[in-house]
Known about the structure:
mainly alpha; MetI-like fold; 11 helices; ABC transporter permease
Amino acid sequence: MTALTPMARRRGPVARAWAYVASFDGFTRAAIYVLAALIIAALLGSWFGLGGSPTDIVGRRLQPPSLAFPVGTDNLGRSVLPRLLAGVTTTLLLSAAAVVLAALIATISGIMAGYYGGRIGGTIMRIGDILCAFPAIVLAILVAAVVGPGSIAALASIVLVTVPLMTRMVGQAARQVAQREFITSAIISGVGTRTLMIRHILPNVAGTIAIQGTYALSVAILVEGGLSFLGYGVQVPHASLGLLVQEGAVYMVKAPWLILAPGAILVIAILAINLIGDSLRDRFDPREARSLT
């Protein structure tokens, strides 16, 4: 592992971030750059209208890729590029929001399970086991049937799918920390339970949270894509990568670019996130086992 130099620590936050990225291996740096490029392109499309409007009809139906339309047009004559950028924005924002919520829930429940153990820890873990018994897509469809198709269903499904796995890993890490001598010393010194969890256990499981959160993001993108493909996730006129794959599947033979473009973005994004997650795992704890892949 390459540590930041003293000179890098004295620089500004951008320079420190750049130095931290540069400390990774070539594959990880490439994954970070690709993921950053996707995010920047999506933001440019959303904020500055890069590629045009995703809803305007601008040409003939099912035109192949050209200089005027780099990713062709869809079945209504809309340019695919702005819809693709809008789909990337929706998928990444929805998945990231769900993972942040899942990480918050998993952190609280995992630290409680690891610290208390016994009946409390066992109950938390058994609830997670019950959720894990459902196949991810079946659980997502059940959620959509209860709350109705849409972004809320996708967000709730991602949370329910990722929370049990993250909770188990955070709980195991918290249990190991809770058995260390400095925790025992803090308890003897009269440190309160809340302070103990926040100031002593949480910093020592932050690496596990970051690793599992990264893997959870790739799972979230898959769940959102699958749910939207089946018609239970993001609904038209909005766009997501899964919804674009669903729309393109109808014209897979006549207009293959409609399904290849969002499909390729899905593969690239998930691969980049998994590569970053592997590097974070090796950096924070080389013995850390992957649970979400």
